[in-house]
Amino acid sequence: MSEPFDEVFADLHTGLAPAAVALDPEEVFNQPDQAVSGSRVEPGHHEPRFDGDTSELAPEVCWTLQALITAPYVSEADRKYWSCVLQYEDILRSRLAELGVVLKINREHRYAFTEPAVDPSPHSRTILRTRTLSLAASALALYLYQQYLTAPDDPIVTTQDMIDHMLAYKRPEDTDEGNFHNKIRAAIRALGEAAIIKQVPGTNRYVIYGVITSLLTSDRIEALEQRYRAIACAEPLQDADGDGEEAHGA
Question: Of 129, 162, 192, which residue constitutes the final position of a domain?
Fold first, then answer.
């Protein structure tokens, strides 16, 4: 017997590494020329950014710290922040640690993100909030991960590619095509809001961001693949610690 539709597309939980706030396509695809990759922030005296500013860090470092907390990640494309991450890594890592946040840097794919530290103290507070992705969005994320590995130099998918893949989870007796497509498009929007994919302006094409390789670890991939194989074979599903994924924001 097939898995009920509502269970396949239910909101479930695991611990996906962070990603949450959507990026403006104009910011992603039309970076300003004045922010040059590799430019250095010179130490020294800096004017206060606002009344009451007592920070000893340069404004650019403060803004980078803010971006690391509020954005899903900072990449080489974010040229005004990326060079600052590399130049002030130790300082940023220390300031984030004070808030119970861990800085992660992927030097191969050139991006950095933050995730909550595992602090057993009862006095610890969580600065980063999490957002649950539906199982449908998790299934789509797994597909996008596989597509990224296949073509990392040209990680592009279309809306139809994603719809066609997700139709494999539709039960033959389910005749509500419109509702099913709405669920799929909601999953696509959720991954866009999590900055895992970004629509190329004016097209039906999406760029898959390399950060997906950090979001889906081998353990998570194995657990998701097991569940989706069970769905495809109409077998009972074995829930472990939950089946959806979580994405974080500030």
Answer: 129
